[in-house]
Design brief:
By secondary structure, this protein is mostly beta strands. 0% of the residues lie in helices and 48% in strands. It is built from no helices and 12 strands. The protein has strands at 3-7, 10-13, 18-25, 34-39, 46-51, 58-60, 68-71, 78-83, 92-98, 101-102, 107-108, 118-123. The strands form 3 sheets. It has a 6-stranded mixed sheet, with no helix packed on it. The N and C termini lie far apart (41 Å). The mean pLDDT is 93.
């Protein structure tokens, strides 16, 4: 059974840092493209970052580039997201996605493989 389990998140002040982690287990593929999205209540889910299954090349949304870093730990089925210089507008529920399609300029999520979400709240 496929599972994505996220950890991290919390309540921090502006300028602080957090690290989110996601582990993808189950399924038949040995490694996957992985991505992070975020969503505020009443808004659409938006892309944040993704990482390539082949060479760990990252892709970022313009709004987070230079502040957030996506990387793998020791396992191709993990994807961590380091969030630095957090701002109130980064407040959202962050979701991990596994097994999507990564292009040079976009990541198409796999609609079947989402984590449960982890809350990030940044106070001003």
């Amino acid at each position: 059974q496929v599972q994505l389990v996220e950890s991290g998140g919390g309540l921090v002040q502006t300028g602080a840092s957090l690290r989110l982690s996601c582990v993808f287990s189950g399924g038949t593929d040995s490694d996957r493209n992985m991505g992070w999205f975020r969503q505020d209540p009443g808004k659409e889910r938006e892309f944040v970052a993704a990482i390539s299954r082949f060479d760990d090349t990252p892709l970022y949304a313009h709004s987070v580039e230079g502040r957030f870093t996506i990387f793998r730990d020791n396992d191709k089925n993990t994807a961590s997201l380091q969030l630095n210089d957090l701002r109130p507008e980064d407040t959202a529920t962050y979701y991990c996605n596994g097994g999507g399609t990564l292009f040079d300029d976009r990541y198409l999520p796999n609609r079947n493989f989402w984590g449960q979400g982890t809350q990030v709240t940044v106070s001003s």
